[in-house]
Structures are given as structure tokens and as C-alpha cells.
Specification:
This protein is mainly beta and 179 residues long. It has helices spanning 32-37, 166-169; strands at residues 2-5, 12-15, 18-21, 24-27, 46-52, 57-64, 72-78, 80-86, 98-104, 110-113, 119-123, 128-134, 143-145, 163-164. The chain starts with a strand and ends in a 10-residue tail after the last helix.
Length: 179
């Protein structure tokens, strides 16, 4: 696996080594030793699948606070997505900055999002399935969100979201004093 750190510390693109032969392809998708060697949370306590039927489906930006803050590693199993990662770690040199990345089933890249960084995506093709590992269990009392169009951050999405939940659409404007 090749680990490429993005502009926000701890946010990584992970490129697998793919082995192919007449049977098809094989790749390692997760390895605790390789993750730990790059300072990433190697523990996966939960795995989730997000199945998105429509082009333009938006989910996020989600995160958890306190002792339930989780790291995520996500991959597109089918389709493609554009992901925004926001740094809300107050001690970080990139606090309140964001980075974006496009990943797809075709490029086989994975994205690692550290604890303290909300992320959200919009699908850029129909029938996009995302698999992600979580370092902590879902804790409803610690769950938080940032609205995809919060004016504090000036997020730039490649398309206007077409399908979005009421919850994600109505998160209040960001208040740095609320955490």
C-alpha cells in the first residue's frame, strides 16, 4: 500500500498494490501494521456500507466528539464520490481548513479521515456504494454535523446536491464555541 498524506495532517489517500492474473485482481484493503506504521488508528470496530442510488446524493459532514471521536477509512466499491474533509482539531495547524478528494471504484483509492475531522461526500455517479471502517462505535450522543453549505467554510462541491437528508440539510451554522 502507498500512503499519500494530503494538506491536512492525518488525512491520507491510500493506493493499493493490485495483483492481476487470468482470475482477476487481488488487493489488500486494510492492514493494521501498515496503518500503524503511518500513525493511523489501526483499530476497526465497525464496518459500514452506504448504498447511494442517485447521482448527486450528499451525506455529511459527520463526526463524533469527545472520547467517541472516530477515525474513518472509506473506499468506493462501486461508482464515484467527491469527499470534503474539514479539520476541527483546535490544536491543528490547519484548524478550520478543508481539503477535497475524488475517489472511485475504478481508481481503487481509499481515504483515511482522522478523528476530529468531519467528512461528507456527494456521489458523482449513480449506484455508488461506499464501504468504511470506523475506529469507534457509533455514539448518538456524541454525533455532530456540519451543513454542506455552511457559509463559515465556503465549501466548493463539484455539483449541486440533488438528494440530501433533512438532517444534513438543516444542521445549524457552525459555532466554534458549541463544542
Amino acid at each position: 500500500m502507498k500512503f499519500i498524506e494530503l494538506e491536512l495532517p492525518g488525512v491520507w489517500l491510500i493506493e493499493p498494490e493490485v495483483f492481476t492474473d487470468e482470475r482477476g485482481a487481488f488487493r489488500r484493503h486494510f492492514c493494521t501494521e501498515e496503518f500503524a506504521a503511518h500513525g493511523l488508528a489501526p483499530m476497526a470496530v465497525q464496518g459500514n456500507l452506504s448504498e447511494n442510488l442517485h447521482y448527486g446524493t450528499l451525506r455529511g459532514l459527520h463526526y463524533q466528539i469527545g472520547p467517541d471521536a472516530e477515525a474513518k477509512t472509506l473506499s468506493c466499491m462501486t461508482g464515484s464520490l467527491y469527499d470534503i474533509i474539514l479539520d476541527l482539531r483546535s490544536e491543528s495547524p490547519t484548524f478550520m481548513q478543508w481539503v477535497s478528494v475524488q475517489i472511485s471504484a475504478e481508481d481503487r483509492l481509499s481515504l483515511h479521515v482522522p478523528a476530529g475531522c468531519p467528512n461528507g461526500w456527494v456521489t458523482t455517479s449513480p449506484n455508488t456504494m461506499i464501504h468504511y471502517y470506523m475506529s469507534e462505535m457509533f455514539a448518538p450522543g456524541s454525533a455532530r454535523g456540519i451543513r454542506y453549505n455552511d457559509p463559515t467554510f465556503d465549501f466548493r462541491w463539484p455539483i449541486e446536491p440533488k438528494v440530501i437528508s433533512e438532517r444534513d440539510r438543516t444542521f445549524p451554522d457552525f459555532d466554534p464555541g458549541s463544542e
